[in-house]
Write a structure and sequence with these properties.
The chain is an alpha+beta fold and 844 residues long. Helix 4 runs antiparallel to helix 5 (222-236) and helix 5 packs across helix 6. Keywords: Signal.
Amino acid sequence: MKKHLLLFKGMMMAISLFAFAGVSPTTAQKTTLERVHENVRETAYPQSMHQVYLNPPPLILPKSVHEKDASYQFELSNDKTFPAGKTITADAKPWLMFSPHKVLDKGTWYWRWRKVKDGKQGEWSQPYDFQIAGDEPKFATPVYETFRKNLPKGYPRLFCFLDNDLKTARANVASHPEYKEMLNRANMGLNYEPAANPYPKARPALAFVTYLHTAYTLTEDKQYADKMVEITRAYLKSTPDKNLLRDDFFCGDLIEQLLMCYDVCHDMFTADELKQIETLVFEVAKNHHNPMRTGYEETHFFNNHFWQHGFRQTLEIGLMFYEHSEKAREMLEYCYELWSTRAPAGGFNRDGEWQNGTGYFTANTKTLYYVPSLLSHITGFDFLKHPWYQNAGQSLLYAFPVGTMSAGFGDGNERQPTPDRQRLAIADFLAREIGNPYAKWYASHCTRDLRRDYETRIYRMARVAKDYPYTKDLPADRPNAVWMEDMGEVYAHSAIQNTNRNVFLSFRSSPFGSGSHTLADQNSFNLHFRGVPVYRSTGYYLNFKDAHNILSYRHTRAHNSILVDGIGQPFTTRAYGKITRMLNGENITYALGDASNAYCGTSEYPMWIKNFEEAGLAQTPEYGFGETPLTKYRRHILLLHPDIVVIYDELEASKPVTWDWLLHSPVQFQIDNAKHTMTTRYEEKQFSSVAQMFSNQAFEMTQTDQYVAPPDPKKMKKGVKYPNQWHLTAKFQPCAQNRILTVIRIMPDGNKEKVLSRKGNVFTCERWKIEAELDPAKPASLKIFNDRNNATFSLGDGDIEIGNTTYKRLEQGSSVLFDKIDGEWLVHEMSDYQPQFTGAGPEK
């Protein structure tokens, strides 16, 4: 994306403009861009309509061109005639991607491709062109040959990147703070007795083998290796049932065990046993670890299980057997090129967070640490220079702060009340490897939970040379809010270092839409204080596709957003949102989300069509699905630091509709329909919250603690509580246009009550004055002013009075912030930013 910064001097303040290419802010509404990202690639990438994410960009073909037993050859040049000497011509490979492996010069580039089959070369395609602007992040990995020629020889090799560390770590391993825990778990491994047929228990056995592998690698105590050999021989004495092989988790867990044992116990097996293990690994891998010639992984946007574990395990198979297996060598090359083009996080996410949400981040952490460690060690190139890794330290903390629930987006986000061990393990990894100060502080303040992570323990105990001291403070210049521009999320904090004082506002309007493990929650927000949710999405992730998941967890009704005629957003990447503006200062954090395209009918994905049928449901208005006449849904949301939230909604439809404004709480609301207030009391944390709504349209607020589809008791975990939650609906009488202002006040016990008064369209709360245009026939307008320090926000038209100075707005309908930014009082003006799309462009 491009940010053009224009700085003016000579006034009483510095003035800067963020100008973003996009639609006029006064007319922004539902667009003709069907989706930002295609779930399965239908459009060759990149083309002239695309703005590339990295330099160099990957070249990717649509899935539709894939043909069995065919290979694909690419050419790339900055000359459209593709002359010799100025053209990169790749060898034909049986996959639909190509990485140039070099930074491209600024200017226009051209690429083409052709199919090669049965020794015959097809015709070159018409060339595509794209621009390199010169300001894209640069990340050019070495060519595969560099990786191939430096592959480790001899065993063990799975953790070759720790070889030098292990030589010194073993001498003092008994003094390591995780040593006792490591031995306790290793003893659990020693006590594990595989059954005559161990395969049905192969998945839980992975933990025991991991305990043994870690202990043996760090101590070289042979009893742990002996047990690993015993477990492996039990597998070799029987054959896995074909039904088990349908489960990719089973296959992956079994493969990991066999590879760990083969690697560190190599000299303890006979030649026949080694061959048996290799044969078994490849037999199991046929089911879910054989992606090289399908064209699927390089063109599919979401394939979670593959990226969580299948990719890493495929890479490990190649690493283990490449010397005597052509299949293994192909696995290695494919994985290397796939990581270079589509990883991490799908390849079109530089934010350092996971587009599927915090709940599923944990499933990816082992791969996220292991793969770049291995590739960097073998090639000598730092794979952690990818923007995703460079941004991850800060993003991990801001999305899931210490002592607090997470931002609250994506499947399983509600399961962890505080940061989980896997998340902290990747933060610790970033602290050690790139010295990220946010990651250091994060890991330092969650040491106990970090040390529980056994999957990455071998790394922490080996790499003691990169231990870092306890980090007391975050960087002094840290922002109080961050914008995940690729993901479409904003996280704002009033006091991120102090859980007891921190107000945490998270907001989502995502270009990734609602698919995979993301939810139908565009333009939704969550609010936390003192580590607990004030308002948060509801329901429980017990199953991916049952009635509770579909209707009361994934559906828009479970989130703090809106329904149109009772209808929410479908489960598809077509149902996307976008954060088009974000401004941030010491006193005011502002974001604008546009979910005008999110209410787009029903899901077309075969998986969801099948899931609805199996749950006995239909994508009909009766269940909250279907077409709507919505044309505009823009939500302006602000945190007035430290503890006031303002929401200003612009809603329009092509005909009158009922608008359901939704708010969810873990505790009951006290509703006053005369004053339009919703009060919640949080006794344990000693605070209250009051939300108050204003609109020119009539509405009534009701609440319930019942779900449209309650969670299935049979799927609830023993010992886990699943309390009902409270769901408030402010239902507006049918109208085609609506404006809604909501002011939320967090009030800790013992503090002065924050009184909100109104005079016309001007609202006053302590030092803040809020003026909102509630007449939908007039242009949208929102003005906020702090009478103590002159901090000012303005949405709308016309000049702005800031103190004794008049600021002349540069674009009608823009958002303007005057605040202390990076230590200096500045004016920032912003018009609409449009996210970078990777599929087909808007309809002509």
